[in-house]
Amino acid sequence: MSKDKYRRRAPALRLKNRVLVMCSAQTEETYFKLFKEKHKSDLRNVIVEVVAHKKSDPMAVVTATVSRKDGYDEAWAVFDKDDFIDFDEAITLAVDSGINCAFSNEAIEYWFFLHFENRTGAMSRKTLNSELGRKLNIEYDKSEATVRRVIQKISGRLVIAEERAQIGHERHMMDSGDAPSSWCSCTTIYALTKKLREWSHVRK
Question: For residue range 27-47, what is the model confidence (pLDDT) as tens digits?
Answer without folding.
Answer: 999 999 988 888 888 787 788
